[in-house]
């Protein structure tokens, strides 16, 4: 119950911020499928996990770097909302927890690049965890392309418990999420070449969705200039 209340409260705050400071637009190619599912997106900014929460009124368990859980206030919220910490040096516990939640009927979200996209734009190579999770749990993947303006990223150096790391916050500007049709995977999760090929396919689908968001933004700017 506490998780649901925190999740709802967080969504209200995020929606309010998006209305005031972000030109947020969510484009749906298809509604989210019922039941457990794995939402998979690119990761251009630290703002992305908060925006993903706007995709569903039901709680989404998001895989987020464990460093964020050490930040005062933010870490408290992430823990109580039952998001999943990912240790960059040991990702297996996060994978196992995500798999357990999917099998329990929850919706899980992760970023296929495994880290933030290059701040100047573009994408990192995809990790295979999303495909392995979907095949292991027997759930569909919902691809999401997040599109924003890289020049509006607010890049700072964060420090938590002696650790310094770059932060890529997107505080103002156009922010679009294009939600694609669910992808149902088949095949053997132990077949590494198959898993790698499917990961590349999912990544390309996400890139196509990002490009759709870019075209939408270009069209909107063109219509406003008339």
Keywords:
226 residues, alpha/beta, 7-stranded mixed sheet, two-stranded antiparallel sheet, 6 helices, 9 strands, globular
Task: Characterise this structure.
It is built from six helices and nine strands, in the order αββαβαβαβαββββα. The mean pLDDT is 91. The protein has one domain (2-225). Helix content is 38%, strand content 24%. The protein has helices at 2-21, 48-52, 74-80, 92-103, 129-137, 192-225; strands at residues 22-28, 37-41, 60-65, 84-86, 107-111, 141-148, 154-160, 163-169, 173-179. It has 226 residues and is α/β, with parallel strands linked by helices. It starts with a helix and ends with a helix. The protein is globular.
Q: Report strand order across the widest sheet.
A: 1-9-6-2-5-3-4
Q: What profile does the largest beta sheet have?
A: 7 strands, mixed
Secondary-structure element string: HEEHEHEHEHEEEEH
Structural class: alpha/beta
Radius of gyration, CA atoms, in whole angstroms: 17 Å
Mean pLDDT, rounded to whole units?
A: 91
**Share in helix:** 25-40%
Strand content: 15-25%
The termini sit apart by: 50 Å
Q: Number of domains in the coordinates?
A: 1
């Amino acid at each position: 119950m506490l998780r649901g209340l925190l999740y709802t409260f967080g969504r209200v705050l995020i929606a309010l911020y998006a209305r005031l400071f972000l030109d947020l637009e969510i484009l749906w190619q298809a509604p989210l499928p019922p039941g457990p599912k794995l939402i998979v997106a690119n990761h251009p900014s630290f703002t992305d996990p908060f925006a993903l929460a706007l995709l569903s009124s039901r709680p989404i368990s998001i895989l987020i770097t464990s460093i964020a859980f050490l930040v005062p206030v933010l870490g408290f919220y992430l823990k109580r909302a039952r998001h999943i910490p990912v240790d960059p040096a040991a990702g297996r516990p996060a994978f196992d927890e995500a798999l357990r939640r999917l099998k329990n009927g929850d919706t899980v979200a992760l970023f296929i690049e495994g880290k933030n996209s290059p701040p100047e734009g573009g994408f990192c190579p995809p990790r295979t965890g999303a495909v392995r999770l979907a095949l292991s749990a027997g759930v569909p993947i919902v691809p999401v392309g997040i599109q924003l303006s890289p020049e509006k990223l607010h890049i700072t150096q964060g420090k938590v418990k002696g650790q310094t790391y770059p932060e890529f916050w997107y505080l103002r500007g156009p922010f679009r999420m294009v939600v694609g049709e669910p992808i149902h995977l088949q095949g053997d999760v132990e077949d590494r070449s198959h898993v790698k090929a499917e990961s590349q396919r999912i990544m390309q689908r996400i890139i196509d969705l990002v490009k759709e968001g870019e075209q939408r933004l270009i069209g909107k700017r063109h219509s406003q200039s008339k």
